[in-house]
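Figure 3 (text version): C-alpha cells given as input.
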C-alpha cells in the first residue's frame, strides 16, 4: 500500500471520527450553542454608497447592522467577483486555482475543501441563494461543493426579471439545487425571499446560509416603487440607487426573520461587497437593462474602481453583527481580507479544516474587540 493511499485512508477515517463525535454531541438533547451564520455579499457596491459612509442612498438596514455590530474599515477583497468568491469559499488566494477574472468555467477542483464542506462536516446545514459564478453549468453548481441547498444564478449578473445571463452559452442559468428552472419575480426579491424561507424553517442543527446578491450588478430594471424611493438621486444613478435600496430592504427582511424566530442573538451576520464600485463602462453592454447612461458606483474618497488594485477596487465595507458576542458600535482599522473569512467562520462554528497551508487567518478576535498580534 502506497504512502499516498495511507494518507487518504487516514484522512477519511479522521472525518468519520469527527462526524461521529459531532453527532454524539448533538444527539444529547442539549441545544447546540454554536451560532447560525448568515453571510451576505453585495455585488459591485461602492465604498461611498452605504448610508453609514455618508451616502444619500438610503440603507437603513445595513446601517443598523453597522450600529449593532463591528465595522472593519480596512477590509480588502479581489478587484473582481469570481476571484473574491473563490477566496471566500476556500480561504486561499484565487491565483492558486488559476483564476484572475470572472469565470463561467469551473474554478475549483472537485476535491476542494470549501467553507460549505467544513461547516456541513461540523453539523451545520449549508444553503446558498444568489450568485455563484464559480462554474456556470449545472454539473458545476454549489451542491457539488458542499451546499445542501442551492438557488439563484449559476453565472454572473442576470436580467432582473427573465434571469438570463449575457451571451448565449450560459444564458439560461437560474436554478434550484443545481437544476435549471424558470421562476417569476424580480431577482432581488427572489434571492431575499429564499433566504427568509430558509431562516424561518425549523432546523435541528445550526445553519449556514450564504446570500450573494446580484445587486448592484448590471443590468438594472428596478420596479417603479423603488425608483420613486430614489427620486432624490440624480437621474443617471437612480436605477443604481433604487437597486441598492431594494437590496437593503431584503436584508432588513432577513434580519426581521431572525428576530421573529428568536435567532438574532445567536446568529453571526457578516455583510460585505465582492469588490469596489464599477466605473460604469459595462453598464450598457447587458441586454434588456434600463440604464440610459453609464452607471457608476461611488468609492470616494478612495481612488479607483472595480477591476483595479487601487483602494477603490479592493477596499470594501464589512460589518459583523452577533448580538450575544459582538459589542455594538465597534470600529476596527486592523488589516483584514476575504481570505480570512473561512478560518473565522470555521473558528466560530468549531469546524475542522484540512491541515494544509491557508492564506487566511481567523479574525474572530477583531470581531470580538480583541486584536491578536497577527492582526
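Below: residues designed for each position.
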Amino acid at each position: 500500500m502506497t504512502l499516498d493511499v495511507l494518507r487518504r485512508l487516514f484522512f477519511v477515517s479522521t472525518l468519520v471520527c469527527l462526524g461521529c463525535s459531532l453527532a454524539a454531541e448533538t444527539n444529547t438533547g442539549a441545544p447546540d450553542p454554536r451560532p447560525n451564520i448568515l453571510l451576505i455579499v453585495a455585488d459591485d457596491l461602492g465604498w461611498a454608497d452605504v448610508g453609514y459612509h455618508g451616502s444619500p442612498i438610503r440603507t437603513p438596514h445595513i446601517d443598523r447592522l453597522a450600529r449593532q455590530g463591528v465595522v472593519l474599515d480596512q477590509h480588502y477583497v479581489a478587484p473582481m467577483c469570481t476571484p473574491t468568491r473563490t477566496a471566500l469559499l476556500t480561504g486561499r488566494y484565487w491565483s492558486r486555482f488559476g483564476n484572475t477574472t470572472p469565470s463561467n468555467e469551473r474554478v475549483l477542483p472537485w476535491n476542494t475543501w470549501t467553507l460549505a464542506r467544513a461547516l456541513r462536516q461540523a453539523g451545520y446545514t449549508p444553503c446558498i441563494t444568489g450568485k455563484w459564478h464559480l462554474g456556470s453549468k449545472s454539473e458545476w453548481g454549489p451542491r457539488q461543493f458542499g451546499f445542501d441547498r442551492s438557488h439563484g444564478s449559476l453565472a454572473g449578473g442576470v436580467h432582473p426579471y427573465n434571469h438570463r445571463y449575457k451571451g448565449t452559452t450560459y444564458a439560461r442559468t437560474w436554478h434550484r439545487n443545481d437544476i435549471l428552472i424558470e421562476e417569476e419575480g424580480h431577482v432581488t426579491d427572489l434571492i431575499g425571499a429564499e433566504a427568509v424561507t430558509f431562516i424561518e424553517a425549523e432546523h435541528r442543527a445550526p445553519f449556514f446560509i450564504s446570500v450573494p446578491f446580484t445587486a448592484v450588478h448590471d443590468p438594472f430594471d428596478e420596479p417603479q416603487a423603488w425608483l420613486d424611493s430614489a427620486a432624490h438621486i440624480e437621474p443617471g444613478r437612480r436605477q443604481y440607487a433604487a437597486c441598492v435600496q431594494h437590496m437593503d430592504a431584503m436584508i432588513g427582511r432577513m434580519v426581521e426573520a431572525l428576530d421573529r424566530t428568536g435567532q438574532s442573538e445567536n446568529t453571526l451576520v457578516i455583510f460585505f461587497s465582492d469588490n469596489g464600485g464599477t466605473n460604469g463602462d459595462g453598464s450598457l453592454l447587458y441586454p434588456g437593462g434600463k440604464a440610459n447612461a453609464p452607471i457608476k458606483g461611488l468609492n470616494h474618497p478612495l481612488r479607483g474602481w472595480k477591476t483595479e488594485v487601487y483602494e477603490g477596487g479592493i477596499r470594501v465595507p464589512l460589518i459583523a453583527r452577533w448580538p450575544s458576542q459582538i459589542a455594538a458600535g465597534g470600529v476596527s482599522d486592523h488589516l483584514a481580507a476575504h481570505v480570512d473569512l473561512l478560518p473565522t467562520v470555521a473558528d466560530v462554528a468549531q469546524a475542522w479544516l484540512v491541515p494544509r497551508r491557508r492564506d487566511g487567518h481567523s479574525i474572530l478576535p477583531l470581531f470580538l474587540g480583541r486584536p491578536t498580534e497577527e492582526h
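The radius of gyration is 20 Å.
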